[in-house]
Amino acid sequence: LPIFTRLLSTSDYGIANLYATYVSIFAIVLSLDLDASVTRAKFDFKEDYNNYLSSVLFLSVISFAVFSSVILIFRDFFSNILGLESILIYFLLIHSFASYVHNFVFAKFRVEYNYKKISILQIITSIGGVALAIILITQVFTNKRYYGQIIGKALPTIVLGFILMFYVFIKGKKEINIEYWKYALALSVPIIFHNLAGIINAQFDRILINAYMGSSETGIYSFAYNIGMIITVLNGSFNQAWVPWFYEKNQNLEYENIRRRAKNYRDVFSLIYIAILFLSPEIIKVMSEKSYWEGLSIVPFIFMGYYLNFMYVFEVNIEFYEKKTRLIATGTILSAAINVVLNIIYIPKYGYVAAAITTAISYFFLFVFHYIITHYILKIKLFELKFHLISLLYVGLSTIAFIILQDYLILRIGILILVGIYLYRKYKKVFLNK
Q1: Which is nearest to 83 in space by CA: 16, 28, 24?
Q2: pLDDT at position 187, please?
Q3: Which of 255, 292, 301, 431 is 20 to 30 A (C-alpha) from 186?
Q4: From the CB of residue 53, how many other CB atoms can be counted at a distance below 10 Å?
Q5: pLDDT digits over 348-383, tens only?
Q6: How far is CA 139 from CA 135, 149, 317, in A?
Q7: Residue whose C-alpha is closest to residue 352's, from 150, 197, 204
Q8: What letter does residue 382 receive in the DSSP assignment?
Q9: pLDDT tens-digit profile of 4-38?
């Protein structure tokens, strides 16, 4: 962030982030989102897991080839719709599929507890992508600098994606298995709508801001959201570690153990969340130049949305375990519909401030819908209402305190120290592994 916000104008930054939004969407659609079945299949195909993976990934390749052919035939149409030059459409297709392969293989590594491989590969692609992007921005694409960021960050992902694809094929050595394909499609196709709705919740507002206000405002809004992405990265990382453990303990009926650890998990995550929120004004000023600082006003609402997303994850993991992917899609689509309606009404009137608030509202409904699904449709009450009310108390009080004290750094640090001491005393035995 501190590099690219100084190398790119707010307009260039906005275009690059819009491209990243399209990568997320195309990665889901081109592949039929078949990576959604990888974790659950580990428990259903224990003895033939590598063959399952190679067969399903081959199905993804077929899907990618079909969709890409259609898009390339009508590339001028898609170029106009997406607002991207033709060369970026080519990059978008390859980059999206490579990104999907990353997700596919990393899901395999996670369920096998191979976190070191994930960390090493992600660090290599991240550092390589940033270094290459800097070179391209400063030496090659001096007029259209967003090209430098897009291509520079895409190339290492693409190269590694193809390496990982061949790794899966070599390990599995089975490309066609109709039983595996039926299993994967049954789980994954409904998740396409769930994940697309999730992207709408997270990023549809950027598309509208770009349409109504321009790429510069999109850049400011995207930057503020990328500060909040620190929370999403933590949430995603914690959840990726939590899910395999949760599946294992749920399978062994260790419900009390799950509840006890969930409380520890929530409280520690909440402390980290509050710390980043309280220090966000300083983070923003370090991470960018003044042209981006307008985004300070929407930070508390962005962070609130991300915390509500953290809350929903507890319930949706139950639905994934129970293979209720259609219900998962239903809950997420409903919240995305609320997001779309609110954004269409309020963004033209109030700009990106409205976008941040409406996104937080839609994330609240995302949690509510999935809570209703698990408690009243599936009748699984693993996490009681009190558990979630405490979470709402954390996010509500921290947001109010931040809004009041955002101009008083010393007071914010003082509150952080007090909260840290309280949680340390509460979980001292856990921290000391006693």
Answers
A1: 16
A2: 81
A3: 255
A4: 28
A5: 888 778 888 888 898 899 999 999 999 999 999 889
A6: 6, 12, 46
A7: 204
A8: S
A9: 777 887 788 777 878 888 888 888 888 888 888 88
DSSP state at residue 142: S
Check residue 375 and report its DSSP letter: I
DSSP 8-state class, residue 47:
G
Instruction: Give CA–CA dist 10/374, Å, rounded.
Output: 42
Q: Which amino acid is at 9?
A: S
Burial (CB count <10 Å: 0-12, 13-18, 19+), residue 407: exposed
More confident residue, 180 or 290: 180
Tell me how far apart the alpha carbons of residues 417 and 236 are, in angstroms, rounded to a whole number. Answer: 26
What is the rounded CA–CA span in Å between residue 274 and residue 218?
26
Q: Are the CB atoms for 419 and 276 separated by under 8 Å?
A: no
Share of the chain above pLDDT 90, in %: 15
The CA distances from residue 53 to 66, 185, 273, in Å, are 20, 13, 36
Report how far residue 351's alpha carbon sits from residue 365's, in angstroms, rounded to the nearest whole number: 22
Q: What is the pLDDT of residue 220?
A: 76
Which pLDDT value is given to residue 389? 94
- Residue 95 and residue 104: Cα distance in Å, rounded? 14
Taking the C-alpha atoms of residue 176 and residue 164, their distance in angstroms, rounded to an integer, is 19
The structure tokens listed for 423 are: 């949680």
Reply yes or no on whether the pLDDT at 433 is more than 60. no
pLDDT of residue 22: 85
322 three-class SS: coil
Neighbours of 104 (CB within 10 A): 23
Q: Give the pair of three-digit tokens for residue 234.
A: 């933590």
DSSP codes of every residue in 161-178: HHHHHHHHHHHH-----H
CA distance 394 to 231: 15
- Contact assessment for residue 165 and residue 101, using Cβ atoms and an 8 Å cutoff: yes
Helices (H), 48-177: 49-73, 75-82, 86-111, 115-135, 145-172
The CA distances from residue 254 to 245, 257, 318, 382, in Å, are 11, 5, 14, 11
Q: How far is CA 428 from CA 234, 290, 387, 401, 419, in A?
A: 22, 42, 20, 26, 14
pLDDT for the residue 377: 92
pTM for the complete prediction? 0.72
